[in-house]
Amino acid sequence: MQVFCIQIFVLLNVVAFAAIVLLTRLAFTGPDRVTVVGWICVGFSLCVFAAPLSIIRLVIRTKSVEFMPFYLSFFLTLNAIAWFGYGFFTKDLYVEVKKDRKQLIRS
Length: 107
Prior knowledge:
Strand content: under 5%
Structural class: mainly alpha
Distance between the termini: 32 Å
């Protein structure tokens, strides 16, 4: 089971990231590249925030955070940092500030 988890981790974090970088570097230029990377970030953001809804519902229903895994909070924070970076490097102050404000409220 651990080997399978490591394989999935490497596949999603190394291979998928390399594919995204190569695709955007080779197939798109200038503003189109920024738009494509932005939509990829939207897709990952949707997955990150929609996947743990059942856990969050359990936490709200039981009024206990014992069911809230550490890695959930950790990766939600990483997602907020990724959005901050996207907003910062594209000089999109709205994205940069809005996502970080939500993260501060959530913490």
